[in-house]
Amino acid sequence: MKTTLWMSRAAMTVLPILALATPGAQAPQGQRGQAPAPAGGQPQQPVQVTTTKFGNNFYAIDGRGGRMGALVGPDGVFLVDAQFPDVTDRIVAAIRQVAPDARLRFLVNTHVHGDHTGGNENFAKLGATLLSRPMLRARLMKPSPPAPGGNPPAPAPAAALATVTYDDRTTVYMNGEGIQLIPLRDAHTDGDTAVRFPAADVLMTGDVFRSVGYPNMDRNNGGTLKGMLAALSLLVDTAGPNTTVVPGHGPITNRAAIIAHRDMAVAVRDRVSKLLSQGQTIEQVVAAKPTADFDERVGNAAQSADRFVQQVYAELRGPAPR
């Protein structure tokens, strides 16, 4: 089933960095999804927000949190993700540099994590209609406890919740684009969405694909290995040979990088499965370093390799016997 919402490739350009120590256009600030405080009590550095142009009217936005996207034009601004609430004013200032008079119209979340949804309330109060999958909305309303237990975050305020939800491919027509919202089921989380801009030939992947580090299946929020591999294959099928792939984190890249990432994940899964079939414990499998020959190419192995192996092992083993 496909849903449609109606409303009335060129070289990449990097616009100047905005390093704003003092807020510009003040946005209402929410409590959920605040950026972590700097370690050691050091003062927080001013946020640098950059916009990178692809095609005629699409911009990738980097600030603090997961990478955002903005399609601008006479119909207004369509945003992908919201970063943390404390940088909303800087992001809005960056958008105003490229689209001074454009109204914020829509914002879609690629998944539930606070570095992608923390600014929802602010953008909603600035006029954007929020869109998400229903699972994401439900998890903002009733957050899951963090692993391995502990208290869940506070529920998101009503203004931070999507007023339009979808769970099939949905198209939004504006600014000469047929923006495609593509559900990625039970992958990084159970509420993931990829966003494709066909005219600009841009594919935003959220955190299902990061161009640095191993996959992260957030099992507390419905992520699965099976869904992750299926979602990566769907991203490969969706991207074309010249598509600009905009990941949630890491350098902007291309279809070949998604293929390599998926193939690596399959290889690691098969290695872990073999060790599991030999009766090895999770500690033994992690110690065997089944990712070792990929670590340098994948990057950020110290932070993500063992976590990925543990997640793969847990899913392949299934529920622990009672």
Could you walk me through the main structural features you see in this protein, from its secondary elements to its overall organization?
The chain has a single domain, classed as Metallo-beta-lactamase, Chain A (4-Layer Sandwich). Helix content is 29%, strand content 20%. The chain is built from 9 helices and 15 strands. Strands 2, 3, 4, 5, 6, 7, 8, 9 and 10 form a 9-stranded mixed beta sheet that branches. A 6-stranded mixed beta sheet has the order 1-11-12-13-14-15. The model is unreliable at 4-32 (pLDDT under 50).
Search tags:
322 residues, alpha/beta, Metallo-beta-lactamase, Chain A, nine-stranded mixed beta sheet, 9 helices, 15 strands
List the helices and strands and how they pair.
Elements: E1 2-6, E2 13-14, E3 18-19, E4 48-54, E5 58-62, E6 68-71, E7 77-80, H1 88-98, E8 104-108, H2 114-117, H3 120-125, E9 129-132, H4 134-141, E10 164-165, E11 169-174, E12 177-184, E13 192-197, E14 202-204, H5 225-238, E15 244-246, H6 255-277, H7 282-287, H8 295-298, H9 301-317
Parallel strand pairs: 1-11, 7-8, 8-9, 9-10, 14-15
Antiparallel strand pairs: 2-4, 3-4, 4-5, 5-6, 6-7, 11-12, 12-13, 13-14
Helix pairs in contact: 5-6, 6-9
